[in-house]
Amino acid sequence: MKIFAVSTGGFGAGHRCTDIGFGTDREGRSVLVDSGKPVLARRDGLTLPSESCWCAEEQWLRKPNLGGSWRRSIVSLIFGLMLLLPVFAYDWVEGSGYRSAPLVVAGSGLAGFEVMSGAVTGVGFTNHLAENRYLTNQIYLNGSGVAVGDVDGDGLCDLYFCGLDGANALYKNLGGFRFEEIASRSDVACDGIASTGAVLVDIDGDGDLDLWVNSINGGTHGFLNDGTGHFVRLHSGAPLNSGKAGMSMAFADIDGDGDLDLYVSNYRIVTVRDQPNTRYRIRKENDRYAVVMVNGRAVTEPDLVGRFSVEPGRVIENGESDVLYRNEGAGRFVPLAFTDGTFEDEQGQPLSEPLYEWGLSVMFRDLNQDGAPDLYVCNDFSSPDRIWINTGGGRFRALAPLAIRSTSLFSMGVDVADLNRDGHDDLFVADMLSRSHARRQLQVGDVPPTSLAIGEIANRPQYSRNTLQVNRGDGTYAELGRLAGLDASEWSWTPVFLDVDLDGFEDLLITTGHELEMMDADVRKRAEALKATKPMTPTEQIRLKKMFSRLDSPNVAFRNRGDLSFEEVGAEWGFATSGVSHGMALGDLDNDGDLDVVINNLNGVAGIYRNRVGKPRVAVRLHGEGGNRDGIGARITVKGGPMDQSQEMISGGRYLSGDQAMRVFAAGRVDAKLTIEVRWRSGRLSVVSNAEANRIYEVRERDAVSATDPAPVQPAVPFFEDVSGLIGHGHVEDVFDDFAAQPLLPRRLSQLGPGVAWHDLDGDGWDDLIVGSGRGGTLGVYRNNGNGGFESIVGAPVNQPVTRDQAGLVAIGRSILTGSSNYEDGLAVGGAVRAYDLDAGKVSDMVPGQEASTGPLALGDVDGDGDLDLFVGGRVVPGKYGSRPRSLLMMNEGGKFGAGQVWNEMGMVSGAVLSDLDSDGFPELIVACEWGGIRVFQNDQGQFREVTREVGLSGYLGWWNGVTTGDLNGDGRLEIIATNWGFNSRYRAGRGEPLGLAVGDLDGNGVWEVVESFTEPGSDRVLPIRGFKAMSGAVPYLGERVGSYREYGRRTLVEIFGEPIGRVATLEVNTLQTCLFMNRGGRFELGTLPREVQWAPCFGASVGDYDGDGNEDLFMSQNFFSVNSEEARSDAGRGLWLRGDGKGGLEVVDARESGVAVYGEQRGCALGDYDGDGRLDLVITQSGASTRLFRNTQAKPGVRVRLKAGAGNPHGVGGQIRVMNLGGEGPVREVKAGSGYWSQDSAVQVMAIGEGDRLRVRWPGGRETESKFPKGALEIELNITGNARVLH
Length: 1288
Fold this sequence. Notes:
By secondary structure, the protein is mostly beta strands.
């Protein structure tokens, strides 16, 4: 054998030379050799150097201390030599139901791409677009795409590019990354039709790839392939989709008849944005305003039908209707109307009118894995994205409103992948938010602020950013783009998921750029100023667009870390080419089993990116039956690699583009034994066992078997049953404009409630339910009737209208105490805490009016005198957000409360709990502060002394919401659980890069400004968070000091504000995650919580044994919608039950198992066994919406335990109970009155107690008793002497 060998290994002793190379075998065929053994024959004979082995290492690499860069040079040499040679053809070997061939894997092992120059490839295509065309019709700026596939059956992937100004191009692959342009002789040049999208797909099932081309006002053209790469038009007359601006296409078998149907997304051929001075006549019809004439033409004319609608204050231009075509065979495609029953709304009713929307992309994917293709349509502007679920037979129903909570506003492209390898496909949609702070300040445009009504839950707002919809596996999604780091990628077009580094997790590539940066607020402002100086003709106004610069932005690549987080690696992976890149498609251009990338650039040469990764892989192609020869819609799963991996075979679906029908999976190891499973669209199943790495497999459907689906598993009955109808309560929240007084508030403070409490108000042994109210409502009090139901109490005093929002909520005896918020009226009169005395039937002011609004309340026997004292947390000073309000302790002396300890600057206290952290019988005070810390105050004989630093918590500054304690590891010490904002917002904070809040009167006008800031990653530059428009509106002198949006984006906070910013106070936040702090005996350390906890802001927190297994669990309420106009609502939470393992570990309990799924702005939550069945029930409040009550039906019943203390503390608040048995000691349970977020759990504890167990109680004040558990008891009462009385 004659060999040329180059080493890619190290240079140590004993190194083998012939790791990889080329040569000729005994039959004269050229081969690739690996470790001296031939692995693949070439198609063309080739004789290389005549020496038996010329070893590069021996001749010129024997140098000392050679590093990685030298090794990369060798790798580059290999690649260079490969490019000079024809591509290897596959040497197929037949198997049972498949054929396979070895792959030439000669990559470097380094992930990424090599940009192939046109001089090497021969691909010089440029999608030219003349200035005069896009100035007069900006639709053309959406660009064109590319299709990849083997058109002539020679085993090599060819390329088809669409062009706007000139002819399209078809490049035949000659091998070795060399191409020849053959469009004209193949009759597919399509000159003169402004081509946009293209897909190569075998539409007639004859085994070759046909071509489909979209255009602007030129129709959708089909070309049939004769098998040699020569095409004939499918339609001799008018093409499909005539008179519309066809964008992207997707093919799938929607009705299961064995052939491929077609969906075309349409935009609009022209827009009034290019027609200045357009005139409208508007008339009111049926209580709605409608456009009836446009420039003197009736809207009944064909090009005006459905085109315009009226919203308050403006006319909206709508896009065109998309078209779904059913393949009837023999080249006949029948359009299906939106109103013929094919499409149904969320309630299953047929649509009554067509959808006129700005369609850009469309993708068929089986989102719910029922075997039928579902449909995602990306729409631009305010046209909502459409998600259609295939209900069978090619009929589609709109996805339920709560299944996806929000979408992108300018939705350009979509892709689907199982990003966390949980078996469920996730969705990504690309928008146009910049990754650069400076550029974001320019991106103002005509984006109206999103307005959300109080209590509005089932809507689907749109936001101008990328969105990542993570599949929960139950047909619903959590939008996690910001948590994942994928929310911004510049002006984006095509997103493609591809496992670039072959680690088993799919990474993300995105094309970016725009010929005109039309979101530039400065240019828009200058253009408006010019128009104001003199009358302009329409032509002159159109020419103003030339003021916008070209946005040459780099394409971006995000590496998937495997935990739903991504890092941008475009430059590292060789993908960050700058320009205006539109359509992108994947194909294996050199037959090495990985997917290369092809991009169509506007007014720039097309990009070809060779995938250089050298890790083991397995490539899969499909050979389907009938009219679906490429197996479109089949789901491919590969097992035995780094993890189970699944992908779906698609056709089209890319923005204006289409991939080669091949999928690639990470093998992990060269010696891996893999299993390939293919579930075909027909429902049949193919399995390839013992598949090998570095091979390509072509699986045949004709040998597939009928899939034997496992017997349906009857879903387990959820733990909780929704019984909210038993109370029928809805929280009242009147509208208030928080931003009138302080325009730069981060969020509304008028919608923070309500709290909720379980408490036996009438002493009948049954917990009653109390729910706080907002201004304009009444306190909700529901008497437990003892038969599993409730009766609303409507008499005095609870029927008195609430004039201020109620805050923290606790109850003692026959009294209900509510915090009263003066935030809206700003008056320091009226009670800060109001007491509802049920015996007297009246409401009184228990605590005098304070400067600050009240936040949390907490009761506990602070001084050990046998009665309960009250902590009152100061929440916020009206009009002075960011100042540190006063908090106070009210001491109970014989039933009367008087002023005790006062903290003048404790901070903006959002949550509080009195809890015995050091097990001495006296409660410590733990408070959670917004723009502050988790502060711990040790109880020293009734006086509190701050020990935050001593216990290790001084470094955690956050936007803390609530706080509670619980023994999660069963060691007898109470952990601290503090709820926070989470990671799924635009805010980022860390110890070295904190968020800041400057607070004070910056311009001397008497208004207290608040200025949010962040520290630029990798530098010490402090930059503003809010945009120039909002900032200058609140601080008018900035309009003179800062001349433009661009200048604002470049300046630091000090450079923007100057000297005044240094005079005001500054607060910091370095911790945004909800935290578990483990009690290590005198010190706390940060514990671990599941990542799902950080998906949304958390508020309430309740600890208890939800499933009866003897371990403490945790529930947290989530979400916040009441944000400023620049922020998106946080809606990825549904309430979260975390099951404890008794060792401090917590795992998420899926909503299908828990039965708890609450989609609104959850606030307070509380636990209590309201029906006395020994299971903990759960109540959750929602701001401005219904209160949700969940009855626990599936937990292992426990024993109800009551403490009976003295008259001043009848329920033993502060007492700690622990089960003692032969196996050891259980977790400590503490009776609390006021914890979590503004709420109170029941004083009756439900505990897992067995026969022979004993109960140890540490009573308030420190006394300890131990009692034997009475055999067979269901409910017991323990008194302070240790006697156990059986109640049931």
